[in-house]
Design a protein that fits this description.
The structure holds two protein chains of two kinds. In chain A, about 0% of the residues lie in helices and about 50% in strands. Chain A is mostly beta strands. In chain A, strands 2, 4, 5, 6, 9, 10 and 11 form a seven-stranded mixed sheet that branches. Chain A has a four-stranded antiparallel sheet with strand order 1-3-8-7, with no helix packed on it. Chain A is globular. By secondary structure, chain B is mainly β. In chain B, strands 2, 4, 5, 9, 10 and 11 form a six-stranded mixed sheet that branches. In chain B, β7 and β8 form a beta hairpin. Chain B is globular and about 45 Å long. Chain B starts with a strand and ends with a strand. The relative contact order of chain B is 0.34. The chains are: A mainly beta, B mainly beta. Chains A and B meet through β4, β5 and β10 of A and β4, β5 and β10 of B.
Chain lengths: ~110, ~110
Amino acid sequence: NAGVTQTPKFQVLKTGQSMTLQCAQDMNHNSMYWYRQDPGMGLRLIYYSASEGTTDKGEVPNGYNVSRLNKREFSLRLESAAPSQTSVYFCASKSGRGTDTQYFGPGTRLTVL
Amino acid sequence: GENVEQHPSTLSVQEGDSAVIKCTYSDSASNYFPWYKQELGKGPQLIIDIRSNVGEKKDQRIAVTLNKTAKHFSLHITETQPEDSAVYFCAASSDTGRRALTFGSGTRLQVQP
């Protein structure tokens, strides 16, 4: 039982390049989330998926797209990376069945030059 | 939307002393208040949480108190140990809308041996 896994751990992009951050959970959770963490600002919600087949915008969705591929996987795509997207990205999941606890992955550190 | 403020941003205590971190929230509909601990290079990990129908909850050396009227909640760590050194985040969510967490900006706790 690996919990929430994220790939890659580190990534360096040039401005304008695209990439997809992968997230998977093996806890049979319904809800999945993408957050970004910037110094002094805590974690901010980018997108979330309350259940398989649904996605919704969070606080800071501009410049990102998501896909809930199946119940296990929730990917985050940067179509044209900008330096302002340099951040640490965390994926999280929640059962949604009588519990509010979110479980976080180890994060992806992204640098956009 | 919800706004969560967290203080202090940094806290240094001597081993064995107590540490207190305070958060305030703005949305009266919020009813779930978790605290996360984040160690360097890792994702946030839940350490304790409280729902709005409870005023206090304890788990060994950690306790959380909630004042719904004043819209603030606090984390108390007693008999601090060097391994308690980390960044701590408070968060809030409600059963309506996104049901996603809104995080405070974090407190870096340093326990001096």
